[in-house]
Write a structure and sequence with these properties.
Elements: E1 8-12, E2 22-30, E3 38-42, E4 47-52, E5 60-63, E6 66-68, E7 74-77, E8 84-88, E9 91-98, H1 100-106, E10 118-120, H2 128-135, H3 141-150, H4 161-171, H5 178-184, H6 189-199, H7 204-222, H8 227-234, H9 239-250, H10 254-260, H11 263-276
Antiparallel strand pairs: 1-2, 2-9, 3-8, 4-7, 4-9, 5-6, 5-8, 7-10
Length: about 280
Amino acid sequence: MGDQESVGVAYHRPSEALARYVTGYHRFAAPVMPGHIFHDAFFPSVATIRVSLAGTPPWSMRVGSRHYDPMPSVALTGPSSYAGYVSGSGGTLVGAGLLPFGWAQMFGGDVSRLSNRVIPLEELDPGAESLRTALESGESFHQVFDSWLEARLQRRPPADPRIDRLCALLRDPGTTRIEAVAEMLEMTPRALAALTRFSFGFTPKLLLRRTRFLRAVSAVLTEPEAAPAALEQAGYWDRSHFLRDSHLFLGCSVREFSRRRGPHNQLAIRARTEALGTPV
């Protein structure tokens, strides 16, 4: 892929109208180098729209045991519990992260059927190609995403407000017990599990583990010398406890992940923190 000086990463906040629905927008760019294959990685995340802009050669991504080669030019990556390992020859990729409340309001349906999977966005929205055309028009990519996503907000009945409340609870470092979450939402644990599978893609326990791990691993990767304190603050008993989650979510140790990831992943943690306030 080249060194960090040859690549670009940008993040933007969504409009105020979309703050409850969208995590933010991102743009990854690298010089097109035919014959040269770069490798990089995405962290496990919420459902994400990713669009390859004109001039971008085909690229591939492995998510768990699934390999998508080539990736759809306008793709919807479902919520993931595995890192996405990317290979390509450069180009420009822009994307938007959909919070579970955003998925429920804009698309709806059982998102667990898309967990750790990739589909062409046109399978969900016949206007997907018009999104790509707009993104290639020269207008700022985050403004295009704002317009396209805001237009979707009124197309469906209001989503279950408990999804939004649950998003906030999962982001709170103080949330550690599923039973407490169920009580706060006035739900049984079984009903909570059904809600999270349908709207988040995974069980409540896995969602809490993923949130805790991503919070910890971003700190470990950016400040390795502060790793022991970061792991303790995230709620890990010891290094082996963290290592088990690393193999679950990254498919390898953090040390091995550091070798596998490329400059985009390294730059993204800092760029995302500066723009959106959180590293993952």
